[in-house]
Design goal:
Keywords: Cytoplasm, Phosphoprotein, Repeat, TPR repeat. May play a positive role in AHR-mediated (aromatic hydrocarbon receptor) signaling, possibly by influencing its receptivity for ligand and/or its nuclear targeting. One of its GO terms (cellular component) is cytoplasm. It comes from Paramormyrops kingsleyae. With 344 residues, this protein is of the alpha+beta class. The chain has two domains: 158 residues, Chitinase A, domain 3 (Roll); 150 residues, Tetratricopeptide repeat domain (Serine Threonine Protein Phosphatase 5, Tetratricopeptide repeat, Alpha Horseshoe). 58% of the residues lie in helices and 12% in strands. It contains 14 helices and six strands. Strands 1, 2, 3, 4, 5 and 6 form a six-stranded antiparallel β-sheet that branches. A hairpin with a 4-residue loop joins strand 2 and strand 3. It is elongated and about 80 Å long. The termini are far apart. The C terminus is likely disordered.
């Protein structure tokens, strides 16, 4: 224990054990997944972040060791802890200069935003020295005046390499290519079970994984096209889920984006036609369904069924509107008659 404290001290880190953990200290090889809650404070006690109190999300932090996380000091300190241990680490400024960017990313995750957005715009150190606002007053101040920080960690779980599936953000491109077909199949199984929302999430995750890779390619190059051909069937499956969930305008957007690139994609026309019909765009629906039959005459019976359904819904809508206007007209006459009788 004293040896660990001495080692950390030489690095500019002071450790205080609040509650000892259990079992032996892990060897923490690269690829180990550590799950922990964290609290981050200034040295004067002012709280910056608490994973248990994050807006919209109280999930613990999950970190894969050896993946070059933007805050290396967390990897350093967590490898001195046992499972269920709670400890406090006071870290010199040289270890905390990246914390404003890391905190911004973690806060984005808790609010459902894209955690990688800041990384796409500029590299970490360049942004640290820029005047770009992080969108949080406390983080802007910390970015402008770097200082030591106190990290209170509770180590919940240590998972050795190979005992879990990596989150896609932590994967190499090769690992992503291997896992996407698995996620695709998981989505298919969920869809067949009728768990449409969960299936949509699987397809979305697989799409996001491939889109992240596609961003590294130049549009139109072989690599970009190859990835786009993998994205398209996933996006069509995602649209099928959205049709069943009644989110028709999202289907219109995604199918139109597919048809902008692949103008003969029958499935995109068919799903877009159904979405148009659902939102009363009769002319656009008929045009899409006509295109489906032209591209694949074998689908004519299916298209005919969709057209009949659309016509029935349109007639029902017209009847409802006619009755509504009739009721409104009747009410207007009644009100007018009452007013006349009163004045007489």
């Amino acid at each position: 224990m004293e040896e660990v404290a001495l080692k950390l001290s030489k690095l500019g880190i002071q450790k205080r054990v609040i509650s000892p953990g259990k079992g032996d200290l892990s060897t923490f090889p690269d690829g180990t997944k550590v799950v922990f809650h964290y609290r981050t404070s200034l040295c004067d006690g002012k709280l910056l972040d608490d994973s248990r109190m994050m807006a919209g999300c109280s999930k613990p932090m999950e970190l894969i060791l050896g993946k070059k996380f933007k805050l290396p000091v967390w990897e350093t300190v967590v490898t001195t802890m046992r499972e269920e241990e709670i400890a406090e680490f006071t870290c010199d400024t040289k270890h905390t200069i990246m914390y404003p960017l890391v905190s911004q990313s973690l806060r984005n995750i808790s609010m459902g935003k894209d955690p990688m957005e800041w990384q796409r715009h500029c590299c970490g150190m360049a942004q640290i020295h820029s005047h770009h606002s992080l969108g949080h007053e406390d983080l802007d101040h910390l970015q402008a005046t770097p200082q030591p920080l106190v990290f209170s960690l509770e180590l919940l779980q240590v998972l050795p390499p190979g005992s879990f599936r990596l989150d896609t953000w932590a994967m190499t491109d090769e690992e992503k290519l291997q896992v996407v077909p698995q996620i695709h199949e998981e989505g298919n199984v969920l869809f067949k079970r009728g768990d449409i929302a969960a299936a949509a999430e699987k397809y979305h995750n697989a799409i996001a994984c491939l889109k992240n890779m596609q961003m590294k390619e130049r549009p139109g190059d072989d690599g970009w096209i190859r990835l786009d051909h993998m994205i398209t069937p996933l996006l069509l499956n995602y649209c099928q889920c959205k049709l069943k969930l009644g989110q028709y305008y999202e289907v219109l957007d995604h199918c139109s984006s597919i048809l902008f690139k692949y103008e003969d994609n029958v499935k995109a026309y068919y799903k877009r036609g159904k979405a148009h019909a659902a939102v009363w765009n009769e002319e656009q629906a008929r045009a899409d369904f006509a295109r489906v039959v032209k591209l694949d005459p074998s689908l004519e019976p299916s298209v005919a069924k969709e057209l009949r359904l659309m016509e029935e819904r349109l007639k029902e809508k017209q009847r409802e509107e006619k009755n509504r206007f009739k009721s409104l007209f009747s009410y207007s006459n009644t009100s007018s008659g009452s007013a006349t009788a009163t004045s007489g």
